[in-house]
Amino acid sequence: MSAAPRVAVVGATGAVGRIMLEVLVGRQFAASEIVPFASERSAGRELPGVGVVAPLREDTITGFDLALFSAGGATSREWAPRFAAAGAVVIDNSSAWRMDPQVPLVVSEVNPDALGRIERGIVANPNCTTMVIMLPLKALHDAFGLREIVATSFQAAGGAGQKGMDELAAQVPLLHNAREQLVSAGAAAIASIEHSIHAAPLAYNVVPWLGSPAADGYSDEELKLVNESRKILELPDLRVSPTCVRVPVMVGHCIELHATFERPVDHAGAIAALEAFPGVVLDELPTPVKYAGRDEVAVGRIRADPGDSHSLNLFVVGDNLLKGAALNAVQIAELLVARGLLRRHLAATA
Ligand SMILES: NC(=O)c1ccc[n+]([C@@H]2O[C@H](COP(=O)([O-])OP(=O)(O)OC[C@H]3O[C@@H](n4cnc5c(N)ncnc54)[C@H](OP(=O)(O)O)[C@@H]3O)[C@@H](O)[C@H]2O)c1
Questions:
Q1: How far apart are CA 139 and CA 277, in angstroms?
Q2: CA-CA 20 to 30 A from 11: which of 56, 82, 101, 128?
């Protein structure tokens, strides 16, 4: 086997998968070969500059060192253990393995040492909204001791994959004259527009629901923010009060955070901690359009809570397809290689 790892990208035709392929190339990830996989629908299709899409079968998944998955939870549950059994370390973007105690849930700048225990051969990438807030929250936690967050997200259509973006793009022209349509026909103008991916028509609208019903009126997307934040930051008692909202933006999630700390927060100290943290940039007016296609997580509107010296308000923006998914997956792959944590490295030193 050559020194450079052989890499499978599962879900290579999807919104995240296509970006993972671009990021691997853009960061000059040294691979002996990159093989794209997708569903039977796409098998045999040529991806320009990448290769022919392979189908997932027992005879096609052998000989890989790394398998980067973004093909949904059902595919990950079925095929990630098979890739792992065949010798690969799987880095999975779905929610299938995130809360498994034997699977590390990793943000590359926040808890890279969790990669020291990969018991199932699988590493999980967090949900894209959780991912984006982990960087500033870790910076502030190290400085002041995080106790509680109230998080309200403004999530892009692209968080629901290619179909999520296609649905929004199809709705916009139907409302090209939205102001008049809305003024004359009222809510009926928007309400009659077809939708199946988002919980309500999204064009010119704001939809306060993402995901499936979970407990006590919360959606599963909201509970991911609670559970994944606690696991990544290793704060099992962290209080998290989440609200997830879909907005008519193609790419880029925003989160308004009200964070409360053990120790009083000084504004200058908070700025210094955020500025020093890798992957974070400060921006007075961060917007998803400005940060689409950018690696950094932007933090702005940093304000002391006028009624509580232990609390801070801040607005966080990150590209859900990049740091929220593809970039972090590739950064984990880079860490695994740099730290000698691929299965064949470990076998050689056992
Ligand atoms: N979009 C985001 O911002 C984001 C962020 C973080 C995590 N994620 C997670 O990443 C995963 C992919 O999301 P996405 O947004 O890229 O979705 P997407 O655009 O719908 O792409 C889905 C990909 O999965 C493939 N696929 C579907 N069923 C399959 C099967 N049975 N076997 C093999 N491949 C199959 C599709 O192949 P075909 O083209 O052949 O159908 C496509 O390549 C999801 O688990 C999602 O929760 C997404």
A1: 6
A2: 101
- Count of structural domains, the chain: 2
In a domain, 198, yes or no: no
Comparing C-alpha atoms, which of 195, 193, 164, 190 is closest to residue 178?
Answer: 190
58 DSSP 8-state letter: T
Q: What is the pLDDT of residues 178-222, one digit of tens each?
A: 667 666 666 676 777 889 999 999 998 999 999 999 999 999 999
Distance from C-alpha of 222 to C-alpha of 101, rounded to nearest angstrom: 20
Among 61, 93, 133, 220, residue to substitute to test ligand 1 (most atoms within 8 Å of Cβ)? 93
Domain hosting 88: range is 6-125+326-349
Q: What angle do CA 180, 186, 190 make, to 5 degrees?
A: 85
Work out which ligand 1 atom sits closest to the CA atom of 17: 16
Which DSSP string do the residues of 64-132 spell out, in sequence order?
A: -SEEEE-S-HHHHHHHHHHHHHTTPEEEE-SSSSTT-TTS-B--TTT-GGGGG--TTSEEEPPPHHHHH
Judge if pTM exceeds 0.85. yes
Active site residues: 128, 253
Confidence tier at 344 by pLDDT (50, 70, 90):
confident
| DSSP 8-state secondary structure symbol assigned to residue 189 | H
